[in-house]
Write a structure and sequence with these properties.
By secondary structure, the chain is of the alpha/beta class. 47% of the residues lie in helices and 18% in strands. This is Response regulator receiver protein.
Length: 519
């Protein structure tokens, strides 16, 4: 049986004659080995012909291994390197790591150690993709079984969490060929989730076996920490989906111990309703009744979130936390964020810092207006990547590091997520109807029930009557609403954009994460 070719390796060692058993063992495994007895020859070989991997001995006469490594990286920056040395000194390991060495082996090494190092470097991605493929295919049936078992809210969070995990996995291993199967399963799950929401939501409004919802954020996640005498920062990342938060974990887990609980966005899954609910601790019909000026703002669709600080102060008073020193801030622009980060020390004497950050929401809306952003964020994977890149280099991460160092407990959540829309659906409405793309508020609204949850009695859903005989339409699946006289003008512009306000797992199942500083 012919040995499978595994790659071409350059081995640089001034005692290469002593390594013949190792070379023969690698050749038997399918590697093509080229040897050099000094750094200069090795670099010359690498410049003349392509290699998949270099093995370099540290202690060589003339040019040593570290110098060889540096010069090799100058001419072949993408070539992965395994360093082999007799020394166990930490400074040498630090040097090698700083030069992006893939592996560090301590002599004496046996042939199997060298083989395993080569295999890990050269075949890691392939092995991980194969594992991802087999892992998802095994879990596919488990998810299908859970979908057919009438899951509870906790069950839906578990399903969503699993699907998000595989989306992130496939972001890293895009050659599995299973992306379409996963997308179909997510679509199927969303249809079942719509039934779950339609069947249960009106009961939850009156408190029957209600899941944790976004208006529970302060009493459940913030107030208990304040009562324990801890300083707390509530960070609301507007429009952050669960998969977005999971991409931030790479940076956060080195700073905090993180516990993630599920939370359910309100209907409509949009900022005027869900974010005001977080700060007021109420369903929308309740905060509109208590604060009549909010009704006017929502009727005019202007300044719909301008009372949030008042809402929060009042909620703290109802929770017997009126004496808490509160700092409240909303940040829309990068310049505002940078300025905030430079002055964050001025606010650290607060008991509660509440910060709203709008970047993720702004990115979603700006994408539909910009061809450049549509190229950068073509789909959900691109959206996750953009959020991750922003956060890694953002003022916000610097603020979080400061909060960690000063002992703040940080609660991170979102008011709602978003979904990429694909199907335009015509609705009948009058001129007073709201402008939402995934939800409509007005009167005499008409739409096929297949495409929208039609709410004729708003109070059953905890919603206000903003006009006489108010109706609401809440989009299902990946639907977006169009008016007949504007169909051709807006259909192409809106299709494939990220929108919110409707019923889907990505819009409604949001993380409520409690971050405790690592010591």
């Amino acid at each position: 049986m012919e040995t499978q070719y595994r790659g071409k390796i350059l081995w640089i060692d001034d005692e290469i004659d002593h390594l013949k058993p190792h070379i023969l063992a690698l050749e038997e495994k399918g590697y093509d080995i080229r040897t050099a007895t000094n750094g200069s020859d090795g670099i010359a070989f690498a410049e003349d012909e392509p290699f998949h991997l270099a093995l370099i001995d540290q202690f060589m006469a003339g040019m040593d291994g570290m110098e060889t490594l540096r010069r090799l990286k100058e001419s072949c920056p993408a070539l992965p390197v395994v360093m082999i040395t007799k020394s166990e000194e930490e400074w040498l390991m630090d040097e090698a790591i700083s030069e992006q060495v893939e592996q560090f082996l301590i002599k004496p090494v046996n042939p199997s150690q060298v083989f395993m190092a080569c295999k890990q470097v050269l075949e890691k991605h392939k092995i991980q993709e194969e594992k991802a493929t087999s892992g998802y295919l095994q879990e596919f049936q488990d998810i299908e079984s859970k979908l057919s078992s009438d899951p509870s809210f906790a069950g839906w969070w578990e399903i969503h969490n699993k699907l998000v995990k595989w989306q992130l996995n496939f972001d890293e291993h895009s050659d599995t060929g299973l992306g379409n199967i996963l997308a179909d399963q997510i679509q199927s799950a969303n249809r079942a989730f719509i039934q779950f929401i339609e069947n249960g939501y009106s009961n939850w409004v009156v408190g029957q076996n209600r899941p944790q919802m976004v208006h529970d954020t302060i009493p459940i996640a913030v107030a208990p920490k304040l009562n324990e005498g801890k300083k707390v920062c509530l960070l609301v990342l507007d429009c952050m989906r669960h998969d977005h938060f999971m991409t931030l974990m790479t940076e956060l887990r080195s700073l905090f111990d993180i516990v993630i609980d599920p939370s359910l966005a309100l209907l409509p899954s949009a900022t005027p309703y869900s974010r005001n609910a977080i700060f007021s601790g109420m369903f929308p019909n309740e905060f509109c009744k208590k604060y009549p000026e909010q009704v006017e703002a929502m009727q005019q669709e202007k300044g719909v979130n301008r009372f949030e600080e008042i809402f929060l102060s009042d909620q703290l008073s109802r929770l017997d936390l009126a004496n808490v020193k509160l700092h409240f801030k909303k940040i829309w622009k990068v310049s505002e964020g940078n300025n905030y980060q430079s002055h964050v020390g001025d606010y650290l004497d607060s008991d509660l810092m509440a910060i709203v950050v709008n970047f993720i929401d702004i990115l979603a809306h700006a994408r539909s207006e910009s061809e450049v952003l549509q190229e950068m964020v073509p789909d959900e994977s691109g959206y996750r990547s953009s959020v991750k890149t922003w956060f890694k280099n953002s003022w916000l991460l610097k603020v979080l590091k400061t909060l960690k160092e000063t002992g703040f407990t940080v609660v991170i959540t979102s008011d709602h997520g978003s979904i990429r829309v694909g199907k335009g659906v015509l609705v009948g409405a009058d001129k007073e109807t709201s402008s939402g793309i995934r939800y409509k508020m007005g009167r005499n609204l008409n739409c096929n029930e297949k495409h929208a949850l039609i709410i004729r009695k708003p109070s059953d859903y905890g919603l206000p009557e903003l006009v006489h005989q108010t109706n609401y339409l809440i989009a299902k699946d990946d639907v977006y609403f169009l008016y007949p006289n504007q169909q051709h003008r807006y259909e192409k512009k809106i299709k494939n954009s990220f929108q919110h306000g409707g019923i889907s797992m990505d819009e409604m199942l949001v993380p409520l994460a409690t971050l405790t500083p690592l010591t």
